[in-house]
Amino acid sequence: MRILSAEFVVSASEPSQFPQEIRHEVAFIGRSNVGKSSLINSLLSQRRLAYTSSTPGRTQQINFFLINQSFFFVDLPGYGYAKISKALRESWKKLIEGYLKGRKQLAITVLIVDSRIGPTQQDLQKLHWLQQNSLPFFIVCTKADKLSKVELQKSLKHTQSFSIDTPVVAYSAVERIGHDQVWSLLHPYVKMKTSHF
Asked: What is the CATH number that goes with domain 6-184?
C-alpha cells in the first residue's frame, strides 16, 4: 500500500463525534503500552501521527486518521491500564464495544498482542468477544525484534492456539518485520467499494 496522505481527523468521546463519511475503517485495539501507536505510525511510514508514550493510558478517546483520502485508521483506547477509576474504565469499555458492534463503516479489527508476553487474560477476553460478535479480525504480535527466532515462533504458535483460523502476524516497528504482511491482510478491506452502506 502506497501512503499518499495520512491525517488526524478527530478524537471522539461519544458516537455523535464520529466522522460521518461513508468510508471503511480499520480499528486497532490492544492493551495499554502494547505498541499500538508505534504500529500505526510504522504502517503509515509516519513518526508522530499517532501519539506514542511510555506512559500507559494516553489514548483516552477514539482517534480517527484519514488515510489516502479513502479510509480511516481508528485508534481505540488501550485496555488494562490500572491507574484509572472503575467508572472511567467502564465508560471506555462502553465506548469501545459500542463502536465495534455498532459502526457500519468498520471493515476489520486488528487485535494487538505483545509477542514477549503472549495473550493476557484481557487480550483473550477481547479475542473471544470479537469472535462471539462475529467481527472480522486478525492478530498482530508487536515487539518481535525483542525475541530470538525460536522464542518468536514459540510465541506465535501459542497465540495462534487461541484462534486457529485467525491470521497471526509478527511485527516490529523498529525493523518493519511484518509490515507487508499486515498490509496484505488489510488490502481487501480498505479497497472494497462502499456503496453498500
From this structure: 3.40.50.300
